[in-house]
User: Which sequence fits this backbone?
């Protein structure tokens, strides 16, 4: 740790998402980027120059021509790893062995067994592991949990449904890593399904489903992909408590990020549960409709309420992206690892693996390990 007690960050890879998180780290107040690694010094320098021109650190981060070079630096305490999923296991383990704390993009691994090895490496070397699910750090979840636990709005939860999709352009289909089975073998299920699965698990306080049944609606691979990857995917799962959940992910339908929790008294609706719409508040709505019959008169009454918290979007100091890195930095500064984050990452991976296995077996029900 630096003398100023700031967490010094290294970024492994010049992925587009890393630009967003450069800005988030700048706004944390407890961290700064000190180095960026790419496949060449020129690529790393170009990335740094672009980011510095918009959101500069007081001291320009150093460019590294290899990931190993960055991991060997003594001015890096933690690394953010947005590398393709097919490469993450190697570099998470190497980062842990180098004593670097790890924020890993999702999906974390190509399988639960790989992720288990990654987490074990972090535990063995006393470094924190966390996945990059930003909405987990949004203040809206605190409010949402309060409303769910109060019991008077939703009642007993019976159903959870989520959609997270975007329409991939032609350029994406031709060149993007997310349609390569070598780099991103889970396709839309990994890229988008990680979020929908996590939301269901969060709602259920991380109770694991008893079983899951997945369906590959559409698959595709770019010209150099050995196999097709999921392009459109849906799944149904059942919990021992009697709650059912479904999710839908696609690269074939335009932007939607919907979450709906139904219960015995009402329901909750989120229109932007992954990436909040631009503004100074994040919100959700509760609905407690009533149906009345008075002779020939049938009336459905809407009783809708908006619940909101003040929180800006887009890497603002109060935004969920910034809070992820601020929270992680505080864990590093405390010297006390938090086992919650690797635990929920592994549960998410296990559910995702089971969904894909089911889809490859014509939707057969796949049982999952109990909590």
Assistant:
């Amino acid at each position: 740790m630096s003398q100023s007690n700031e967490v010094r960050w290294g970024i492994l890879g010049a992925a587009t998402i890393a630009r967003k998180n450069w800005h988030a780290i700048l706004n944390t107040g407890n961290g700064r980027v000190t180095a960026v690694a790419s496949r060449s010094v020129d690529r790393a320098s170009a990335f740094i120059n672009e980011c510095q021109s918009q959101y500069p650190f007081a001291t320009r981060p150093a460019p590294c021509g290899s990931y190993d070079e960055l991991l060997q630096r003594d001015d890096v305490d933690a690394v953010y790893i947005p590398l393709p999923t097919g490469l993450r296991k190697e570099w998470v383990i190497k980062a842990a062995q180098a004593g670097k704390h790890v924020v890993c993009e999702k999906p974390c691994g190509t399988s639960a067994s790989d992720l288990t090895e990654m987490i074990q490496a972090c535990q063995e070397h006393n470094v924190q592991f966390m996945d990059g699910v930003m909405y987990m750090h949004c203040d809206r979840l605190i409010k949402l949990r309060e409303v769910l636990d109060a019991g008077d709005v939703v009642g007993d939860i019976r159903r959870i449904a989520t959609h997270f999709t975007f329409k991939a352009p032609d350029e994406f289909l031709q060149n993007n890593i997310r349609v390569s089975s070598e780099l991103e073998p889970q396709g839309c299920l990994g890229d988008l399904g990680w979020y929908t699965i996590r939301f269901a698990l969060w709602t259920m306080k991380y109770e694991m489903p008893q079983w899951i049944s997945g369906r590959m609606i559409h698959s595709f691979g770019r010209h150099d992909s050995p196999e097709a990857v999921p392009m459109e995917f849906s799944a149904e799962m059942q919990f021992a408590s009697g709650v059912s959940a479904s999710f839908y992910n696609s690269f074939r339908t335009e932007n939607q990020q919907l979450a709906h929790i139904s219960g015995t008294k009402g329901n909750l609706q989120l229109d932007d549960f992954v990436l909040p719409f631009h503004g100074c508040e994040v919100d959700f709505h509760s609905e407690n409709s009533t149906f009345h019959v008075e002779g020939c008169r049938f009336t459905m009454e809407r009783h809708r309420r908006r619940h909101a918290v003040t929180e800006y979007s887009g890497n603002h100091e109060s935004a969920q992206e910034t809070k992820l890195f601020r929270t992680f930095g505080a864990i590093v500064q405390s010297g006390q690892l938090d086992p919650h984050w690797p635990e929920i990452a592994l549960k998410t991976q296990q559910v995702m693996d089971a969904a894909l296995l089911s889809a490859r077996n014509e939707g057969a029900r796949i049982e999952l390990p109990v909590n």
Q: What stands out?
A: The chain is about 35% helix and 25% strand. The CA atoms of residues 78 and 187 lie 28 Å apart. The first strand starts at residue 7 and ends at 12.
